[in-house]
Amino acid sequence: MPEIQLQQDEVDAIQPVKISHHVDEIAEGDRLVERYNYVVYEFENEAGYLWARTYLEEVEKVAIYGPFTDRTRTTKAIAPNLETAVVSYLKRRFDRIDRLNPDKNAPDAYETLWRRSAQD
Predict the structure, then answer these.
(1) What is the DSSP letter of 56?
(2) What is the pLDDT of residues 35-79, one digit of tens each?
(3) Predicted model pTM
(4) pLDDT at residue 16, rounded to an integer
(5) DSSP letters of 57-73?
(6) CB atoms within 10 A of CB 54
(7) Residue 12: which pLDDT band, with cuts at 50, 70 and 90?
(8) By C-alpha distance, which of 85, 109, 89, 82 is closest to 98?
(9) Long-range CB contacts for residues 94-103, cutoff 8 Å, separation at least 24
(10) Nearest alpha carbon to residue 112 among 99, 93, 102
(11) CB atoms within 10 A of CB 90
């Protein structure tokens, strides 16, 4: 019988401070109009706060939001080390990473930051 070897997880430079599951339902009267089933990952360090969301209907992709100065999400921060650490964490878990497009006039609301290639 061949020997099975398991590899230990790589050590991530950052871990989420919170992971939460949400279900939002929008109804008109007794009729369910929309349903959003998603998981939110929250990251925080001395540089700021960043969060990511994946919809369970499209679990292969995730979108990131931020970085912000804190959890209020009102003030943008410049935190390249936080962004790099979060993207590295998410690359190990998702096939595609998007971010809200900073160009409000762009045809797409989101831009793809990274996509796993067929060789990966």
Answers:
(1) G
(2) 999 999 999 999 999 999 999 999 999 999 999 999 999 999 999
(3) 0.86
(4) 98
(5) GGTTEEEEEEEESSTT-
(6) 19
(7) very high
(8) 109
(9) 94/54, 94/60, 94/61, 94/62, 95/60, 95/61, 96/60, 96/61, 96/62, 97/61, 97/62, 97/63, 97/64, 98/61, 98/62, 98/63, 98/64, 99/63, 99/64, 99/65, 100/63, 100/65
(10) 99
(11) 23
Q: Give the sheet arrangement for strand 31-45, strand by strand.
A: 18-28, 31-45, 48-55, 61-68, 96-100, 110-115
The position carrying tokens 């790589």 is 10
72 Cβ contact list (under 8 Å, min separation 6): none
Nearest Cα residue to 41 out of 67, 65, 19: 19
Question: What secondary structure letter does DSSP report for 32?
Answer: E
C-alpha count within 13 angstroms, C-beta hemisphere, residue 114: 19
For the chain, give the percent of residues with pLDDT over 70: 92
Cβ–Cβ under 8 Å, residues 73 and 107: no
